[in-house]
Amino acid sequence: MTAPPTSVTGQPATATAVVPLRDGRTGKTRLAEHLPAAERGRLVVALARHVVATLLAADGVSRVLVVTADPAFVTDALDADPRLEILTQPSAPPGLNAAVEFGREQVRRRWPGDRLLVIHADLPALTTADVAALLAPAAPVTLGPDRAGLGTNAVLLRPGTDAFTFAFGPDSLARHRHEAQSLGSPATLVRRDGTAIDLDTEADFSALDPFVQERLRAAIAATDLLPRLQALP
Fold first, then answer.
1. Which sequence ranges form a coiled-coil region, renumbered to this chain (predicted)?
2. What sign has the CA pseudo-torsion 17, 19, 20, 23?
3. N or C: where does the chain have the smaller number of CB atoms within 10 Å of the terminal CB?
């Protein structure tokens, strides 16, 4: 019998991560007034590379599925890895929730015993310890709130939660908590900087640890993007 997949430390891997990722032209549109499309694209790449690399290095993650409508962009952006798969999102229905649902269908069909970890691609402070914290609870549904406590940056679903409906968008945390309760038990909330801080505004950048700021600066050092991020009103 084939041994189960293992992480880099040799521990059994028990979850498949699904990362929805927009293309480099339409991502980070809230920064469009201050950052040209090419620079937003470089920022999308730097953030996604960090999130995917962190997931692949984390104990308990067997594989990472990136769901995108632009597979050529994502293939160029990410380093190849045998545990990384890029999935093309069908053209209909469009949108974030449809992308996540498509990823869940793949996991349910191909690895029905795996837990499903849905996590956003723009978390610059994400660490393997953050991933471990998301995987640790025994609850059917675990949620990683955003910094404001209104949105959702990560969802962990255990097998048997197929009735859970993804509701990403404004104020998604309340909707996801309601979905969990409808399955019979409250969601467990995991509040950590690494899962809470996404990067859409200057305030988000300011909330990052200086070490993370410097790492992001190094990743895109060829541009003056970060000084302008810091100068956003």
1. none
2. negative
3. N
| Amino acid at residue number 10 | G
Whether the pTM exceeds 0.85: the reply is: yes
Helix axes 37-57 and 128-135, enclosed angle (nearest 10):
60
d(CA 52, CA 120): 10
Q: Which residues of the chain have pLDDT under 70?
A: 1-13, 24-37, 219-233
Residues 85, 64: contact at Cβ < 8 Å?
A: yes
User: Phi/psi of residue 147, each to 5°?
Assistant: -65, -30
Structural tokens at position 163: 């009735």
* First vs last C-alpha separation in the chain: 59
d(CA 56, CA 83): 7
> Which residues are part of a known binding site?
152, 169, 172
In the prediction, which pLDDT does 4 show?
40
Domain ranges of the chain: 15-230
d(Cα 215, Cα 197) in Å, to the nearest integer?
Answer: 15
Q: Closest Cα partner for 50 from 135, 156, 123?
A: 123
Rg for the chain (alpha carbons), in Å? 17
Count of CB atoms situated within 10 Å of the CB of 119? 27
DSSP state of 29: G
Handedness of CA 139, 141, 144, 149 (dihedral sign): negative
Which top CATH class is 15-230? alpha beta
